Amino acid sequence: MTISIFDDDAINPKAIFPYDFKPLQEDMLDKLVQNHHVLWHAPTGFGKTVVALTSMLHYLLGSQRTIDRIIIMVRMKTQIFRILDEAFTLSSYYFSNYEDLVPEKRNIKDFPAEIIALPLIGKEELCVNPKVISQTMSQGQIDCKGLRCNLFKEKPPAGEELNELVLTYFMKDLKSTSEIKEFLTVETPALCPYYVLKAMLRKAQIVVTTHSWLLNPQLSTTLFKELSVEPDRTGIIIDEIHNFRAHQTGKITYNQMKNASMFAFRHNLDIKPFLSKLEEDFKIRPLAEIQAVIDPEDEWNLNRIMYPINEYAGKQLPSKEDRDGLNALKILHTFLSTEGDLWYYDKEEYRDYNNRRQYYKVMKRVLAFPETILKKIASFNRIILMSGTLFPPKAYLTLYGLDETFSLVEVPHEPRKIKYFTFSHPNISSRQKNRGLALFKVQDQLINRLHQINPNHTLVFSTSKVFTNDLSKVYSALFPNEEIFVESSSQQNQVMLEKLRLKKHELIFGTLAGSFSEGVEIKDRITEASKITMIIFTGIPHPPPTLSQQLLERRYLQRFGQRNTIFFLKWLPIYQTLLQAAGRGIRRPTDQCTIICLDYRLPGLGIFPKNNSITTTEFGDILIAVKSFYG
User: Fold this and answer.
1) How far apart, in Å, are the Cα atoms of 211 and each of 75, 243, 390, 520?
2) In Å, what is the CA distance from 541 to each residue of 370, 507, 584, 608?
3) H-type helices in 454-546, by residue range?
4) What is the DSSP letter of 526?
5) How far apart are CA 630 and CA 620, in angstroms?
6) Element (H, E) at 72
7) CB atoms within 10 A of CB 350
8) CA-to-CA distance for 359 and 182, rounded, in angstroms?
9) How far is it, in rounded angstroms, from Cα 478 to Cα 581?
10) Domain residue limits, the chain
11) Averaged pLDDT in 10-residue chunks for the chain of 631 residues
12) Does 3.20.20.70 match the CATH number of domain 418-630?
């Protein structure tokens, strides 16, 4: 029997939950409903998304509703449609049971029959400009920014036409960006799909997008202003909040600054003295922190840069120098008008035509504290920040400055079939100077013995692409009859995953912070269990500190003290990288996985849970324990 949506004249969120409740989900739903601003700490596979979304719908529906829209943010574009899938399931359940759930005649504004969920996707992914397809993306961007694209001639649908388009979309279950692009191209062939989607988004109660629409100042402006987001009437859910950190908000090269300055001189712009000084300082200043080049309130200089940009918009500039100069002026305006309270000169590496290492100078801006980003949503009516169980939640409350404003809600740790092993051998380290053939041979021999015990896929992570390739080559030479799969940046994730789904017992070599460590699932099509049941780390990602980290350290010391600064800037990034990769094998509560580290430095970090891990100097102990684990 379907539960009524009303419970003592209040909305009962449990009535619209589309699945049978798993253990603890019902309790967590109650806690999320009770708290306005929450950091929610729950294990992978718990069903965080659907529980969090249902708790938000509690405030979206009914005459006492306090929010009109829900925004859900994920880290990667590939995750958007997984979230939309959950939203569609929830919406379909509500729609198909509408008469039972809302038996009395109610105001349609309070209880709409459809809950529309739409993705917020960037222009590039939806662009159908023939110049982009037949020439270059940059040419399409020039047409787009100059409003010269033919698809700008007609306005996006509005009124009843827009409502019909949204309902047509609602009745379909579109699974990818390409399907949405095709849908919009067919339904509105003479219009730009991006601007049509943006018009549709105004009708959506649920908007799904990525972190970048909050982190990137230009995108966040689009999100808040162009979509008419009213914070006090909006709820927001941010997944994988543990990946928020000091964020680079802008960068400009010396050549771009020089081109902008030369453009100003050629056209005798009144901004040329200002740009000339910027160029000269750029040339002579050392790689170090600098004072802010422009005051955040200095709209006068920003407007002086914007004036020629507007003046030349849509005009055909005959010379390449002028086109490059105008483009550089736009880049400079974006850089100066963005956020970021830490300014500094740095260098970046590139490879020339002869594959020789070269460097160029850049000016960068960084938001030093993640809380600066979270302040953008501080006034939202309801906020749920979600994090995985293995990440330390109290550390994030402190780092993000949320101690006093957010409630911490944790799912009690449930025993899972996961075992952590560390082979603490002094001759194996990713930082040792003689890392080479001898070390790779030792590691590959250990990897082979472990992989033979594992009944499914084994995923081996190295700290760099170079080490991944070298390790895989040595393994192939040692064990020529064994099949291996090496992560490739030249292949799309989906292509690689399809190949691996067809295999049963594959040894996969990947790179930490690469494609296979970030949001990838290789699961059985029938049982949906993870096919990765062993993960091996060949080293710890702990490179020498960058200039940015050194500059951040000064600010963190003043605020957090030495102990917390070392943890936040040195150890926390290692936690995040390793645990993000470890999560590839534990996507659901029923998954089983062994996670093994072949680096003697790991025990001192205390990353793995003490009650579920083994550290030993005897490799035989690990082999016995792993055999016992798989039964």
Assistant:
1) 5, 10, 21, 18
2) 22, 21, 17, 16
3) 465-478, 493-501
4) T
5) 16
6) strand 69-74
7) 9
8) 42
9) 26
10) 35-115+205-246+369-412, 121-204, 248-368, 418-630
11) 50 85 90 92 84 91 84 88 89 82 64 85 81 50 59 79 89 83 88 89 91 82 82 92 80 94 92 92 93 80 87 81 90 88 90 84 88 82 84 77 84 71 66 63 88 90 88 92 82 67 81 76 72 87 85 89 85 81 76 81 61 80 89 77
12) no
Q: What are phi and psi of 329, to 5 degrees?
A: -65, -40
* Bridge partners for 594 per DSSP: 419, 534
For the entire predicted model, the pTM comes to 0.81
Contact by Cβ (8 Å): 411, 46: yes
Residue-level pLDDT at 38: 93
Structure tokens at 322: 């002028």
Distance from C-alpha of 190 to C-alpha of 457, rounded to nearest angstrom: 48
* Secondary structure of residue 426 in the 3-state scheme: coil
Residues sharing a CB contact under 8 Å with residue 346, sequence separation 6 or more, in sequence order: 287, 361, 362, 363, 364, 547, 548
Q: What is the four-CA torsion angle of 426, 432, 436, 439, rounded to 10 degrees?
A: 10
Nearest Cα neighbor of 597 from 609, 582, 583 is 582
CATH class of the structural domain 35-115+205-246+369-412:
alpha beta
Q: Which tokens is 617 given?
A: 């100097």
How are the residues of the chain apportioned to helix, strand and coil, as percentages rounded to the nearest 5? 45, 15, 35
Residue 100 CB neighbour total at 10 angstroms: 13
Any idea how long the chain is? 631
Kindly give, in sequence order, each residue whose CB lies less than 8 Å from that of residue 162, ignoring residues fewer than 6 positions away.
Answer: 156, 199, 200, 203
- Of 96, 125, 121, residue with least CA distance to 200: 121
Q: How far apart are CA 551 and CA 502, in angstroms?
A: 48
Place of tokens 């080049």: 293
pLDDT score, position 140: 46
Q: What's the rounded Cα separation, in Å, for the pair 488 and 494?
A: 12
User: Residue 386's pLDDT is what?
Assistant: 92
Q: What pLDDT score does 8 carry?
A: 46
* First and final C-alpha spacing in the chain: 43
Strands 117-119 and 417-423: unpaired
Alpha-carbon Rg for the chain in angstroms? 27
| Residue 419 token pair | 């075992």
String of DSSP letters for 147-189:
T-SGGGSSPPP-HHHHHHHHHHHHTS---SHHHHHHHHHHHST
